Each structure stands twice: as C-alpha cells, then as structure tokens.
Amino acid sequence: MAEKRKLCLSAKGLTKVFGFGKTRTVAVDNVDFSFYEGEVISIVGESGSGKTTLSKMLLGLINETEGEIFFLGQKRDIRSQRNKQEYWKNIQAIFQDPFSSYNIFNKIDSVLLDCIKMRGGGNLPKEKKIEMMREACSFVNLKFDELTNKYPFELSGGQMQRLMIARIFLLKPKILLADEPTSMIDACSRATILDMLMELRKEIGMTVIFITHDIGLAYYVSDSVYIMEHGKFVESGTPDEVILHPKQPYTKRLINDVPKIYEEWDLSTVG
Amino acid sequence: MIHTLQQIFHSGKFKLGFAIFTSLLAFIFIYPIFIPEAPLAILGQGTFFPPGIYVNVYDSLDTSKYIINQEGAAKRRIANKLSEDDRVAIKEYLVAAGVDESRIDITNTDELLQQWKATFDPKRSIKGFTNAKRNYYIRLNTALQSLYSTGPAIIAVNDPETNTLLESKKVTVTEYVNVNEVPTVRIFPLGTDNFGRDMLTELVAATKTSLQIGFIAGLIATLIGLTLGLLAGYIGGFVDDIINFISNLFIVIPPFVLLVLISFSIGQEQRGASTVAAVIGFTSWVWTARAVRSQVISLRNRDHVNLSKLSGHSIPHIILTDILPYIASYVIMAMILQISSGILAEASLSILGLGPKTTEVPTLGLMMNWAMIYQAQLQGNWWAYFPVLAVIALIAFSMNLMNTGLDQVFNPSLRD
After folding, report:
1. String of DSSP letters for chain A
2. Given A16, A38, B210, B273, which is the most exposed site by the fewest CB atoms within 10 A?
3. Residue A146 resides in a domain
4. What is the pTM of this model?
C-alpha cells in the first residue's frame, strides 16, 4: 500500500534559527518528514515547541535557515513573487486566531471574491460569482445574504472560522495547513468545524496538516501523528501506535495532561 | 468611519484644539473679505505706531464741535503735556537745589509743579550745572508757564497774496469732536510695524503663509517618511539597511543645522515661501520614517497580512490595503506634529534671516525678524512681536492638543 501513496510534501534537514549570539533560538531543529497525498497529518506539541514556525515555513511565509522542502516530489522554488503566488494556489491555511486573521477594513465579500479571483474566476459574470460565494457559505452553514456588506469583526469567532473554511472551499487547494483552527473556539463549535473540515477534505481530496496541542483531537481525525518537542519530531506513526502505545516519556506526558471527566487529574507528571 | 469621528470629537482635548485651530483659520479667511488691503502696503510714515484709533486732525477741524465741561480735564491735559524727560529733568534740578529726594514723586504732576515753582530761580547758579543746562531750565520754566494757559489755540491759513497768516479758526480747551463724525479715521488694532504697515493685516497674511508653509512641509515630510518607512519595514533586508543608513545620517546631523545650511546655500533671491517649505519638508521626514518602519515591522507578521499573501495579493496591494489602513491614524497624528513643527522651523529660520524672500509675503518668522532688527523689544513696542508670538504659540498649542486628543482615541490606554 505504501508504494501507491504519492508524496505530497516532504522535507529534509529542515531547520529554522531565530536571532544570533545570545538570543539564538533554534525553533525547528533538523526535521525530516514525508506527508502523503490525501492523508490527515497531526503535528502535536506544547506551546513553543516550534509547530507554528514549521507551519509558516511550509506555507512559505518565512524562509527556512537550512534544509529543503519538496512539494509533489520536486524541490520547492518560491523565490520569486510569481512562484509564491503559484505555490499558494496549492497550499492554504487556517489560522489559530480568527479575530486577527481578517483585515478589519475589508468587507466579507472581498475575502471570498479574492479566492474566486485566485482560482482564475476574476472575469466571471457577477451572478456566477455570487452563486459561487453563496454555495461556499451554505457549505459552512452561513447565510451569504446576511454576510454581504458586513465586516469580519461583526461575526462571532465560530462564524469567522467557518468563513475561513468557506475560503478553502472556494480555493480547493491540494494541502490545507490548519494551525490550531479550533483552539480559540468553544467545544460545540469545535466539533462542527472539525466535521466541516473533514467533509471538505473528502469532497476535494486534499491533504490536511493539523497543527494542534490537543492530542485527543489528533487521535480523532488523523491518519498519522507527529509529536514535536523542542523543534524535533520525537515520535511519529499512526495514531494507534503513537497515542495508544506511546514510547517516549514526552508523549506519555502529553496524553496524561488531557483532562478527563470523572477522573482525578494527575498533576504529578506536570513539570 | 462615522463612529471614529464621533469618538474623536468626544475627546475634550481634541475639541479644544480643533476649536482654536478652526477659529484661527476662519479669521484668516474672513478678515481679508472685510479689509481687502495689501498686507505689505506701507501706511504710516514712521516706525511702530502704537495700537489705537487714529483721527485725522485736519478733518476734525471741520467736524461739528461739541462743548463739554469735563471735570479734571485740565489736570489731565497738563499731566499729558509734561513729558517723561521733562519730569526727570525737573527732579534732577530739585535734587541739585537741595530738595529731599524721597519727597519728590515724578508721577504726581501737581506736587511736582508746586515744588518746581517754589524752588526754581533763574538767577541761581547751581554747582555742577553748565551754562547750557541752566538755559535749558529757563526754557523749561517758560514752557511750564504756558501749561496753565486756557486761551484758545488759533488755526491760521497762509494767504498766498500777502504771504501773511489769516486766522481761520479758534479751538478752545472745552471743544470736542465725535470720532464717528470725523470722515477719516484709521484704526490700527495692533499698531503698525517698523515700516508703518498695519500689524493686524500683516499678521493675518503672515499666518496664512506660515500655515501654507507648514502644510506643504508637513505633507512632504509625511509622504517621504511614510514611503521610506513602509518600504523599509515591509520589504526589510537590504532595502531596510539602506533606508536605515540614510535616516541615521539625517538623525546624526541635527536637522536644524541642515536646514540653515541648505537655506543659506539656496541664496536669498531663490528663497520663496514654497522653496523654504520644501527644504523644511526634505529635512524633517526622519522620525516619521522611523516610526512608520517600526509599526510596519510589527504589522507585517500578523495573520491578516499572511492571509492576504495567501490570497495571492501583490506586495503593493498588501502595503496599501493591509498595512496602510492600520497605521493611517498614526500617520495623521504624525502629520499634525510635522505641520506644527514646520511652522516653528520656518519661524526659527526666518528669525535668523534665512526665511523666504522679504519683499513678497510676510510670514510669522519674518515679522519676528523685522521686529528684532528694528529693536522693538528694546523700545518696548510689544505690539510688534507679542501678537506674532501668541499666534505661533496658539497654532502649535492647538495642533499638539489635537494630536494628544487623537492619541487618546486611537490608543485607548491613554484615555483619561
């Protein structure tokens, strides 16, 4: 089965260093990985373990210090603005904080219109564009007619994050990087949003990379799990291997730290 | 937008500053409608006429007369006729003649004249007084005698045939004219300056020019600072290094020295108001560039900028729509400060004689320069410089108030 899987995103010796001298911090330390097409990958780790830096490097928002990233088996070249824009047609992201993800001066329509433009639909008739936006909004249970002429900050956090998914619905990228998409949202909306994401994945067959600190969520959604500690992958494999039979003490601690209902919280392993 | 404006006008400081500034502006635009005089027209022959109402003496002779018996009028007339120099001279004589100095009060006209009458003797020679001085005191005594005269003054005209004076009018001490009936009256609310120009008209024109200079300078400085700051902050790397190097150069050399040197090298003939404004603008963009750069650096890694990148926007588009609106309030505040410091810079340059050409337009700094050259401050001609100072202070004060008010609105941690 492994031979059939096509390589989607992989990296060799990926390293990111911030600062120099006394302030030198290695955020991502010599990381290798191979993500395959159609998989749901979870990268789990504490705050500050380098998850977000890794995701920004994968998105091409910051440059890697060392190492190489391969996209669809070929070395990624995003030095020119044109190449970058081409690359971003294939990889998209949902950010952690929906409240800071939108430009507060732009209306919601423009967010969605940008996506249609990016898919080459800039010259479509207006009715067609509205039709597409309405479809995208109804997919995430938002009413497009209520959203037109509204500003993003007039929505709730859950609605904003669903609008993000509507963006992805219109863009149909090959890879979606979801950087803690549900950490700022209450538990009820969280389930809805995750369901929507999974449904969308099925529909357009994209690879989803979940960046999360919630190991329960990782077990629930992913095909493979990577545990990250201090910028390194310390453990990886299927969720059954990693989460049900952890080998590393760090993984064990992460699993132990998940609060459980009807059970006393074991604080002895913390710190 | 409307909400922001409401918030801005909720701030007391902004309201006060705005009120001062708009009333200044309104005055500048309304005044020339009512008094459309050339601001640099020379009206008075002589320097520094004090503020007041000037009644034409010649025309007042033909104006209908009113007899008014005013109590104390004679006393006031005598007190007014006796000049400050004469009083001092009288005191000097009295002291030399042996009157106790503590008993002499030169402000009390009555007592002084009585003491003079009692002491003065034309034949008496006082030790230390020259002959000329003695003669001066004799003349002064004759003049003092005529102070008490209550007879009418006679106005005479010259008869061209016989070349003799013919009495045409008598003016008695109780005659008055109504100022409203005199056909030619000139009011100088702020007096005249050293060239005999109406200070108020000149001041209004000068304020207008200075504000224009300030606006042009502020606009240039803000545009340069904004552009360089945006480029340095957003693009970073090599561009940032170069822009930082240039702005460091400008910071190390004090801008005022630069301003003086550039103004001097341009030369007196080439320095119009707009040239001076441009020079000020080109030397004062540094801090705007610095501040904008640091704001942009903190903005460029925000999620909404990342999202905009992921949405395929170009760098100019991102700078214009995702960065600029977020720093717009800050830039406007910086611009207000730039305008007020532009006005101050023009005043400082002009007072050194490096301002705009002196023959075309007055500016606040030029008016200060003229007052200084003609020693208004030494002669006590306060009207030649104090109103100018007050206007400069008001402009700077109102703009800083508006700036602080805006700061409070856009930076909620400063609200009181």
Report:
1. -TTTSPEEEEEEEEEEEES-GGG-EEEEEEEEEEEETT-EEEEEE-TTSSHHHHHHHHHTSS--SEEEEEETTEE----SHHHHHHHHTTEEEE-S-HHHHS-TTS-HHHHHHHHHHHTT-TTS-HHHHHHHHHHHHHHTT--HHHHTT--GGGS-HHHHHHHHHHHHHHH--SEEEEESTTTTS-HHHHHHHHHHHHHHHHHHT-EEEEEES-HHHHHHH-SEEEEEETTEEEEEE-HIIIIIS--SHHHHHHHHTS--TTS----TT--
2. A38
3. no
4. 0.80
